[in-house]
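We now fix the convention by which a protein and its fold are recorded. The integers have meaning only within a learned vocabulary of local backbone shapes. The record below shows the convention in full.
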Amino acid sequence: MTISPPDAVAFRAARPDDARCLGVLSTQVFLDTYATQGIRPAVAREALALHSVAVYEALLADAGVTILVAECAGHLVGFSQVANGVANPQLPFAAASELQRLYVQEPFSGRGIGRDLLRHAEKSAAALGADMLWLQAWEGNVRALQFYPRCGYEELGATVYTIEGEDFPNRLFGKRVRHVAPA
């Protein structure tokens, strides 16, 4: 299979007919990232509960969620998912949005697609009134822990993600995406 050069990647808002591809792509990247030691029941249930086609159909119908896709030669290769207007009690910004997912298929990693998706997500969040875009990254995801600071995100503390009673340490990151002039 020949992979198109990175300049052939187009970015657009996700459409309802993308739900099937988003569900599969999301599952693939989730498992590649978080199931590095294999599949066990808790991980399987998490993947099926959070990355199904039905989940993406609902997300695409939710006006409070923005999903942007990266497409190469008619194939989805990555996406960002932002929950608009979602504050975090650990952050000083009430006008914030959460980057819930930034997923790029492994063969397309390192080509700037994630960075471009992130920039589009930041602009979209700012246009919808967010002063800050924040996210959580698993401490075991070294690539993400290095990527976000390179993109201007500040590490803001620790947090935990829980799967069926098992806690996974995460790092909290945030970036100002809209600068409001002082009154």
User: Anything to note?
Assistant: Residues 19-34 form the longest helix (16 residues).
